[in-house]
Design goal:
The N and C termini lie far apart (46 Å). Helix 1 runs parallel beside helix 2 and helix 3 packs across helix 6. This protein has seven helices and ten strands. The strands form two sheets. A five-stranded mixed β-sheet has the order 3-2-1-4-5, with helices on both faces. A five-stranded mixed β-sheet has the order 8-7-6-9-10. It folds into two domains: 130 residues, Nucleotidyltransferase, domain 5 (2-Layer Sandwich), CATH 3.30.420; 87 residues, ATPase, nucleotide binding domain (Nucleotidyltransferase, domain 5). It is an alpha/beta fold. Belongs to the KAE1 / TsaD family. TsaB subfamily. Keywords: Acyltransferase, Transferase.
Length: 231
């Protein structure tokens, strides 16, 4: 089974890298809006140096596939593809929302998590996740981008942890759910939490060659139209 996985994520204001070597995890993380392009590669070099490894010695490369900032997601996948191409590594995309669920578990043993990210434009990215006995997660509320007022999933389990920036940006979200919720304190995804998700994805055979790695924008049409010269 794959044991040496590098994960990188720049999909939100947070910039993070993590390396799993057997049971050891080496991680770097920094809130650095608009500095991802200058921060991420030195972080990669740092974790590899600490582990005494080169890219060619790794088994796979995981990346935050989104949702998140259009620019941030593009930066992350572009850098990840460049690294994977150079070392001929398979790639696996990891949901940033699911990564926050895993982080809530790491911090609080949370096994039911509603994750949201402030998507700007009066919308949120949102999804709901339940932890399985094998340590993987299943999606119980499909990831979507929508106005906060429309996020009201019907859930059988009445007790949930919340994670992400959407809850702070739209405080009324909590009251409209009619659920028992606990704030996990998680605001942003971290590459460290993508490692376990990537491990399970790789076990399911979901790795792809670098040229086939793709982001998940959820709002890709709108983001595309916002680019200069696009309609």
């Amino acid at each position: 089974m794959t044991s040496k996985i590098l994960a990188v994520d720049t999909a939100t204001e947070n910039c993070s890298v993590a390396l799993k070597v057997g049971d050891e995890t080496i991680a770097r993380c920094e809130i650095a809006p608009r500095e991802h392009t200058t921060k991420i590669l030195p972080m990669v070099d740092s974790v590899l140096a600490e582990a005494g490894l080169t890219l060619n010695q790794l088994d796979a490369l995981a990346f935050g596939r989104g949702p998140g900032s259009f620019t941030g997601v593009r930066i992350g996948i572009g850098i990840a593809q460049g690294l994977a191409f150079g070392a001929n590594l398979p790639m696996v995309g990891v949901s940033t929302l699911a990564a926050m669920a895993q982080q809530a578990y790491r911090r609080h043993q949370a096994d039911h998590v509603l994750a949201t990210i402030d998507a700007r434009m009066n919308e949120i990215y949102a999804g709901g996740f339940q932890r399985l006995d094998n340590g993987d997660w299943t999606t119980v509320v499909e990831e979507a981008v929508l106005p906060p007022a429309l996020f009201n999933p019907q859930l059988a389990n009445a007790s949930w942890f919340t994670a992400g920036t959407g809850w702070q940006a739209y405080p009324d979200l909590i009251s409209q759910l009619h659920l028992e919720t606990t704030d996990s304190g998680v605001l942003y995804p971290e590459a460290e939490d993508m490692l376990i998700l990537a491990y399970h994805a790789l076990a399911r055979g979901e790795a792809v060659d670098a040229e086939h790695a793709s982001p998940v924008y959820l709002r890709d049409t709108v983001a595309w139209k916002k680019l200069p010269g696009r309609e």
